[in-house]
């Protein structure tokens, strides 16, 4: 296609506790993770659904395999995400130097599982304390949700705020992390 990347893009669908997650990418890295829109919450954060690839498992490039393994761990044994490699990313937004990229990398590296930060706190962490609105824009354009955990960014009031996967998805992800973290603390 005109102006497109020369990538040989592959697609994988992962069946997860929150529904079908679509992952696209190439040999170089993950391009995008598309979350399902949730209209009803799965019952309990302890969903019985195993997390497995249901489409596209053949000839999966390594970054997609790593992405699927990371997401599987996130849903099924979150403590393992700390030991797994984060897959390479190959989305244009994450290639060029920008405040959005800075914010997304800061979020990925500094806001750990089970934690939450406000848009303002994340702006501070990314080096521009007056850029809370720009942080919101960065969250909206995040091509790799869950791995780059934009669901962990909430309003200063404590309200969860909006989310690309919808408010139910954000609530589910936050409560999943809270439950898993409490389990580990026991």
UniProtKB/TrEMBL annotation:
Entry annotated with the keyword Iron: no
Q: Which organism does this sequence originate in?
A: Promerops cafer (Cape sugarbird)
Descriptive protein name = Methylated-DNA--protein-cysteine methyltransferase
Positions of the Methylated-DNA-[protein]-cysteine S-methyltransferase DNA binding domain: 101-178
| Localization of this protein | Nucleus
- GO biological process: one example: methylation
Keyword annotations from UniProtKB, A to Z: DNA damage, DNA repair, DNA-binding, Metal-binding, Methyltransferase, Nucleus, Phosphoprotein, Transferase, Zinc
**GO CC annotation terms, alphabetical:** nucleoplasm
Which residue range or ranges hold the Methylguanine DNA methyltransferase ribonuclease-like domain? 15-87
The keyword Nucleus is assigned to this record: yes
Q: Name one GO molecular function term.
A: methylated-DNA-[protein]-cysteine S-methyltransferase activity
The record's function comment reads:
Involved in the cellular defense against the biological effects of O6-methylguanine (O6-MeG) and O4-methylthymine (O4-MeT) in DNA. Repairs the methylated nucleobase in DNA by stoichiometrically transferring the methyl group to a cysteine residue in the enzyme. This is a suicide reaction: the enzyme is irreversibly inactivated.
Q: What is the lineage of its organism?
A: Eukaryota, Metazoa, Chordata, Craniata, Vertebrata
| EC numbers for this chain | 2.1.1.63
Q: Which Pfam families match?
A: DNA_binding_1, Methyltransf_1N
Q: Which InterPro entries match?
A: MethylDNA_cys_MeTrfase_AS, MethylDNA_cys_MeTrfase_DNA-bd, MethylDNA_cys_MeTrfase_DNAb, MethylG_MeTrfase_N, MGMT_N_sf, WH-like_DNA-bd_sf
